[in-house]
């Protein structure tokens, strides 16, 4: 069984992940030279912690993970409620501080939500294929995602909240639900967007959207980071200014350079070729993840792999888009590249689950 699993695993996903981690560590090494490489060292430590956990997750059948997902989901909801009562950091109550380490429950909730939502979809389709109407199905499935999403918005962390909605959209698309109901829900969301902008979003969120449309509205305030990011990427040109030599990176103009704007560090110091390679690696990773979803041995594997793909797609699109000024700034990290222990561990567990699903595919599916 193990030999068959090793043969079936989509190793290309692991290779892309490894290269992205290496590029991220190089960028972090350069970006943290003025702080005694503190975040770089922590990232190395989190990587060392993540690898054995990743191996264990690959070996445990994903069907077992799905069966215990209600417990994991419930625990995640408790943690999301509890974190709202912690001390705010940079205006957000998103972290538990445990000694020198910080723990972000919204990151680990991604695993719980994808597993539990996939589990619910399969259970609904298996138990009652005809009597439950499509609208009720969508409502029940959506509720699994909306509850943690609202708790994350309360922190506030709008970027992570949107990532959950992307995962939901991806899973609903492949859940064999009549597309007209999904289109109806999508149209309702489009209608609600301007309503949310004018009547629901707080002023700082509106400011980010306004500055995204025109950064020069507040070049020394809300528009500062995006202007510096675009300057950094442009200054890198084809081959970059060289490691430890980026003006915006090393002189402190780019902030936060180890998390939200790590892609700008790569663009400035490593240049267009490496920055372009990062984008290509993500495209390959996402494409291969979709292939795993298509060739999974059952619908449960398909839904889980699809939800994970949605998470990675949104993070890649939003983070790189915001550093280039193409999308509003939301504070979303770049998977495997940005600094963050919770983010790195979560993303590697998600990769392990995809490898888990790919390793248990049936050979026949490769020929289809």
Give an overview in words:
The chain has a two-stranded antiparallel ribbon. The chain contains 16 helices and 2 strands. The protein has one domain. Helix 14 packs antiparallel against helix 15. A hairpin with a 2-residue loop joins strand 1 and strand 2. The C terminus is likely disordered. 71% of the residues lie in helices and 2% in strands. The chain has 368 residues and is an all-alpha fold.
Give a nutshell description of this structure.
This protein has helices spanning 2-8, 11-31, 38-59, 62-67, 69-83, 105-127, 134-153, 158-173, 179-199, 203-213, 224-236, 247-250, 262-295, 299-323, 341-359, 363-366; strands at residues 96-98, 101-103. It has 368 residues and is mainly α. A hairpin with a 2-residue loop joins β1 (96-98) and β2.
Strand order, largest beta sheet: 1-2
Uncertain regions spanning at least 5 consecutive residues: 363-368
Task: For the record, give the distance between the C-alpha atoms at the N and C termini, rounded to a whole number.
Answer: 22 Å
Count all strands and give the number: 2
The structural domain count equals: 1
Instruction: Please summarize the sheet with the most strands.
Output: 2 strands, antiparallel
What's the alpha carbon Rg, rounded to whole Å? 21 Å
Q: What is the helix content?
A: over 70%
The SSE string, one letter per element, is: HHHHHEEHHHHHHHHHHH
With helices defined by DSSP (H or I, 4 residues minimum), what is the helix count? 16
Overall geometry comes to: globular
The fraction of residues in strands falls at: under 5%
Rounded mean pLDDT score: 85
Structural class: mainly alpha
């Amino acid at each position: 069984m193990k030999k068959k699993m090793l043969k079936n695993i989509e190793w290309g996903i692991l290779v892309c992940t490894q290269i992205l981690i290496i590029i991220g560590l190089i960028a972090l090494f350069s970006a943290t030279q003025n702080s005694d490489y503190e975040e770089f060292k922590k990232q190395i430590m989190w990587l060392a912690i993540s690898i054995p956990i990743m191996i264990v997750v690959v070996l445990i059948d994903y069907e077992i993970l799905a069966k215990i997902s209600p417990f994991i989901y419930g625990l995640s909801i408790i943690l999301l409620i509890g974190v709202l009562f912690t001390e705010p950091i940079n205006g957000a109550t998103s972290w538990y501080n445990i000694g020198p380490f910080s723990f972000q429950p919204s990151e680990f909730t991604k695993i719980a939500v994808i597993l539990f939502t996939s589990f619910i979809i399969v259970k609904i389709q298996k138990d009652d294929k005809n009597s439950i109407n499509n609208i009720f199905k969508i409502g029940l499935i959506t509720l699994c995602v909306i509850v943690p999403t609202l708790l994350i918005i309360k922190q506030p962390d709008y970027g992570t909240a949107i990532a959950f909605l992307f995962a939901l959209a991806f899973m609903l698309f492949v859940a064999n639900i009549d597309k007209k109901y999904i289109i109806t829900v999508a149209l309702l969301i489009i209608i609600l967007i301007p309503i949310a902008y004018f009547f629901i979003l707080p002023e700082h969120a509106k400011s980010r959207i306004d500055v995204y449309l025109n950064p020069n509205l507040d070049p020394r305030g809300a528009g500062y980071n995006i202007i510096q990011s675009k300057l950094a990427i442009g200054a890198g040109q084809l081959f970059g200014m060289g490691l430890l030599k980026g003006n915006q990176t090393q002189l402190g103009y780019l902030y936060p350079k180890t998390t939200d704007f790590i892609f700008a560090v790569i663009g400035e110091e490593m240049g267009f070729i490496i920055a372009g390679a990062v984008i290509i690696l993500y495209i390959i990773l996402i494409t291969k993840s979709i292939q795993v979803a298509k060739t999974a041995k059952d619908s449960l594997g398909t839904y889980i792999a699809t939800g994970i793909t949605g998470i990675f797609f949104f993070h890649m699109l939003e983070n790189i888009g915001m550093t280039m000024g193409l999308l509003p700034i939301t504070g979303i990290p770049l998977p495997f590249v940005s600094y963050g222990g919770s983010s790195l561990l979560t993303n590697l567990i998600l990769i392990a689950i995809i490898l888990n699903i790919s390793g248990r595919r049936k050979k026949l599916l490769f020929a289809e």
